[in-house]
Amino acid sequence: MPVREILGKMIEFDDDGHLKNLNDWNEEIAKELAKEEGIPELTDRHWLVINYMRQEFQKIGDAPSIRKLTKESGVDTKELYQLFPKGPAKKAAKIAGLPKPKGCI
Hints:
The protein is mainly alpha-helical. It has one domain. Helix content is 47%, strand content 8%. The protein has a two-stranded antiparallel ribbon. It is globular, with a radius of gyration of 13 Å. The mean pLDDT is 92.
């Protein structure tokens, strides 16, 4: 498992680049992960998706799919792709400190 230093803390990642330990996540880590994914700043709309994903993960043990995100988060498909370009569910899950959603390739 790859280990990287983020904000002075050594953090372990899985083979897909997602946090291995969910407890390593916090909002500052999320901001750094977003920058690594080409998102220079997280807006209120980004946080709406991130927080929704984290809540769903706590309930069901998996990050929600794009379909569920667009139906229940309050962010439609077009906006989701604008917020998290090139694979929004996977990218949002990564920034949210969650494993890759099962439906993502």
